[in-house]
């Protein structure tokens, strides 16, 4: 026996070193000052991995990543003393999209491709994964791809690099494209393909399944997959650090990592089973010898164990019976429910401590007393009737409430339960007494609370209601509607509580869609309910109602909505009148603005035409005077030159006034007007203005074109006065049936909520937009610039 144990320990010692494979240990790096400074500025790196076992896989129970690439990156992070932020993706396309969006910094386990070089900087390869040729285990020897013909279909995942390699290198192969490595092996097992091409990592994972147990490696394709760590192209420092960290990792650690995650358990077709057969026979002999020794030892112990077991069982049964008896007696004595054992003659044979305390008697004073001492109405005939009912109830206890008389003469309200009991040769009724004094008080308090609630709800100037849903997914129904419904809509609460009624039956047909939408949203999200709309009274009158209900979660999944329906008809009338008044004021303001713009245009034309003609005549007369008299007097020539300069200034002044009143560029379209205003703004403020307008001229009403131009002028004035910006961007675009104008700057920004109505410029712009039937959105935060977005309909 000791020799067998030593042999088993020796075999275990030989196997354990192959099981204890750890991840690569961190190796300290010697970095330059520049590299250390870069790492200090980038302490956290975002790593993207494609979820594909055994390289990277997610344990959803603990939400933790594992795999060969995960352990490698953790070793590199420990060597570089940085933290990793993991991002997992379903495939290579999603990983590359995340890199283009700037969500990740590096990714392990990629192969260097021409397309990938435009996105990544690749490190030196850290792992070589061969592409293997797999066939049935009955295949003899290794297979040469050049010897295969059209009769030997070859299953390979396509599209893939290995499929492109096989098509370009071996023209004699009959390739059978599949979607995955598992599907390739399934085609091989089903006889649809003669061989399958799969990489060593996927083969090591799939070969452990019983479905693929009969497969073997019959050759090597000759195109190994070289795994590299890819990093951002704009961070060449990171690529150099990764190369240094990879070179510092010991080769034995990388080999252990490969053996742990990428081992290929599938045997080769040319391996001989003789060694395994010999080991199996040796192990079987050892197991047989151990079994014989155990049988012999077992026979020696059986006699003694049998005697000890019989004695132990007898002792345990006796102790268990005694313990059960003690526990039963203790439980009955410590119970808060009064328990009486009563004989057929209504005399008590046993009473626990709770029953004695309830009835106010000393210990042992209840025994041998008749029940009539505690319940005077329990005469013998009634007791015998209860005896017969309890005996014939098949174990179902009888329940009723009564009042017992205590030892001091007081009354004790109790709930009584009777149960028949046959013990040995005697029969008893077990009487259970439960004190219901507190329950009666609580019931009285509940009734008082309900009466108070009914009184309050009846005097509330509105309709109080409660909606209930017993559990998630169940239908909701009105559990309570106050009598205020009579004064609000003319219906009684009882009529509205009918299954086909409720508040929804009062809603105006035009407002039922909004009513059901808000109610369904509140019910689905278990949130508060708010609705305003019209309801119809019993006599057909229309009223405006405001519904407010608060959601509460109770025990057992019950959700209730307590709310009230207010009559807001008068407030709504005032609100509608105020809205009409505001609309009229806005129409009047729009009319005045239109008249003012027309007047500005008329004045601009008159100034340009009339004053322009006068100035032209004056300039002509000055030129004629110069020709006629300038030679006679040298001082006159200087005077005439001064007059010509003044006339030129007046010409420019007239043009500026006419342009300010109504820029002629508006006749060329709103896009040209925006570009012209931007150039003037640049010339006046030296602030660069980036303009983007449609190439095709926009057909826009004159009023809308002028309105948008005035809004743009006010926005640029605000930028000049307050923004302290370095750049301004103007964008005009057609989006659907609307025209959108955006004005953005990189200035100091502001808080729109804090400014409010105190800025007349913003108020004027908002009113102009409303007059055009559009909307104005101001997006700004202190220190982050400002963006104004104006949308007006094209129609």
TrEMBL record:
Residues 571-598 form a coiled coil. Residues 1-22 form the signal peptide. GO terms for molecular function: 4 iron, 4 sulfur cluster binding; metal ion binding; phosphorelay sensor kinase activity; protein dimerization activity. Keywords: 4Fe-4S, Coiled coil, Cytoplasm, Iron, Iron-sulfur, Kinase, Metal-binding, Signal, Transferase, Two-component regulatory system. Its EC number is 2.7.13.3. Its cofactor is [4Fe-4S] cluster. It is found in: Cytoplasm. InterPro entries: HATPase_C_sf (IPR036890), HATPase_dom (IPR003594), His_kinase_dom (IPR005467), PAC (IPR001610), PAS (IPR000014), PAS-assoc_C (IPR000700), PAS-like_dom_sf (IPR035965), PAS_4 (IPR013656). Residues 529-580 form the PAC domain. It comes from the Bacteria. Its main location: cytoplasm. Residues 449-526 form the PAS domain. Pfam families: HATPase_c, HisKA_3, PAS_3, PAS_4, SBP_bac_3. It is an enzyme of class 2 (transferase). It catalyses: ATP + protein L-histidine = ADP + protein N-phospho-L-histidine. Member of the two-component regulatory system NreB/NreC involved in the control of dissimilatory nitrate/nitrite reduction in response to oxygen. NreB functions as a direct oxygen sensor histidine kinase which is autophosphorylated, in the absence of oxygen, probably at the conserved histidine residue, and transfers its phosphate group probably to a conserved aspartate residue of NreC. NreB/NreC activates the expression of the nitrate (narGHJI) and nitrite (nir) reductase operons, as well as the putative nitrate transporter gene narT. This is Oxygen sensor histidine kinase NreB.
């Amino acid at each position: 026996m000791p020799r067998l144990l030593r042999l088993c320990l020796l075999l275990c010692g030989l196997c354990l070193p192959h099981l204890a494979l750890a991840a690569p240990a961190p190796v300290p790096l010697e970095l330059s000052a520049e590299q250390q400074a870069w790492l200090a500025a980038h302490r956290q790196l975002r790593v993207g991995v494609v979820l594909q076992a055994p390289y990277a896989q997610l344990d959803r129970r603990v939400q933790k990543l594992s795999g060969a690439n995960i352990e490698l990156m953790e070793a590199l992070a420990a060597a570089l003393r940085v933290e990793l932020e993991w991002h997992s993706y379903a495939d290579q396309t999603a990983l590359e999209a995340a890199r283009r969006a700037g969500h990740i910094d590096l990714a392990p386990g990629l192969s260097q491709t021409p397309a990938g070089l435009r996105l990544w900087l690749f490190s030196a390869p850290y792992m070589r994964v061969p592409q293997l040729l797999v066939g049935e285990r009955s295949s003899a020897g290794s297979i040469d791809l050049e010897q295969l013909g059209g009769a030997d279909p070859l299953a390979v995942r396509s599209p893939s690099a290995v499929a492109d390699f096989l098509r370009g290198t071996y023209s004699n192969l009959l390739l059978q494209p599949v979607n995955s490595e598992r599907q390739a092996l399934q085609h091989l097992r089903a006889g649809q393909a003669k061989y399958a091409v799969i990489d060593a990592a996927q083969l090591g994972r799939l070969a452990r399944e019983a479905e693929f147990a009969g497969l073997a490696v019959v050759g090597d394709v000759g195109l190994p997959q070289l795994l590299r760590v890819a990093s951002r192209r704009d961070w060449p420092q990171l690529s150099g650090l990764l190369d240094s960290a990879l070179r510092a990792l010991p080769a034995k650690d990388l080999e252990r990592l490969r053996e742990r995650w990428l081992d290929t358990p599938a045997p080769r077709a040319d391996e001989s089973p003789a060694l395994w057969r010999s080991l199996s026979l040796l192990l079987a002999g050892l197991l047989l010898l151990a079994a014989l020794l155990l049988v012999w030892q077992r026979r020696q112990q059986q006699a003694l164990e049998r005697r000890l077991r019989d004695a132990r069982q007898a002792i345990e049964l006796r102790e268990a019976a005694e313990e059960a008896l003690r526990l039963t007696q203790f439980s009955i004595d410590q119970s808060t429910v009064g328990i009486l054992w009563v004989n057929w003659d209504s005399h008590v044979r046993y009473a626990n401590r709770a029953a004695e305390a309830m009835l106010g008697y000393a210990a042992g004073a209840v025994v041998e007393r008749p029940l009539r001492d505690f319940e005077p109405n329990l005469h013998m005939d009634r007791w015998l009737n209860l005896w017969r009912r309890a005996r014939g109830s098949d174990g179902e206890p009888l329940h009723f409430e009564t009042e017992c008389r205590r030892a001091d003469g007081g009354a004790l309200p109790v709930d009584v339960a009777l149960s028949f009991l046959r013990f040995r040769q005697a029969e008893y009724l077990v009487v259970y007494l439960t004190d219901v004094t507190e329950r009666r008080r609580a019931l009285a308090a509940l009734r008082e609370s309900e009466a108070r609630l009914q009184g309050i709800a009846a005097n509330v100037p509105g309709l109080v209601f409660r909606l209930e849903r017993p559990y998630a997914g169940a239908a909701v129904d009105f559990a309570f509607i106050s009598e205020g419904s009579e004064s609000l809509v003319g219906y009684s609460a009882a009529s509205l509580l009918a299954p086909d009624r409720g508040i929804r039956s009062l809603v105006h047909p035009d407002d039922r869609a909004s009513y059901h939408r808000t109610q369904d949203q509140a019910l689905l999200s278990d949130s508060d309910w708010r609705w305003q709309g019209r309801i119809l009274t019993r006599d057909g009158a229309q009223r405006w109602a405001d519904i407010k209900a608060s959601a509460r979660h109770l025990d057992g999944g019950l959700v209730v909505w307590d709310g009230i329906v207010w009559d807001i008809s008068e407030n709504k009338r005032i609100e509608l009148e105020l809205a009409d008044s505001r609309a009229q004021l806005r129409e009047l303001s729009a009319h005045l603005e239109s008249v003012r713009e027309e007047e500005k245009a008329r004045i601009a034309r008159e100034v340009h035409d009339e004053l322009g003609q006068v100035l032209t005549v004056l300039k002509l007369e000055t030129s004629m005077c110069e020709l006629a008299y300038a030679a006679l007097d040298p001082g006159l020539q200087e005077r005439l030159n001064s007059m010509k300069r003044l006339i030129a200034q007046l010409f420019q002044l007239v043009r500026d006034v006419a342009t300010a009143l109504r820029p002629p560029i508006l006749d060329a379209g709103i896009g040209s007007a925006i570009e012209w205003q931007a150039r003037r703004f640049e010339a006046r403020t030296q602030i660069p203005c980036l303009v983007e307008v449609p190439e095709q001229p926009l057909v826009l009403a004159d009023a809308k074109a002028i309105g948008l131009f005035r809004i743009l002028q006010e926005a640029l004035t605000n930028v000049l006065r307050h923004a302290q910006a370095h750049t301004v961007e103007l964008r005009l675009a057609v989006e659907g049936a609307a025209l959108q104008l955006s004005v953005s700057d990189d200035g100091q920004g502001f808080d729109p909520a804090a400014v409010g109505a105190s800025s007349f410029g913003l108020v004027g712009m908002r009113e102009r937009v409303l007059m055009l039937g559009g909307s104005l959105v101001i997006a700004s935060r202190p220190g982050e610039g400002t963006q104004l977005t104006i949308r007006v309909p094209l129609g």
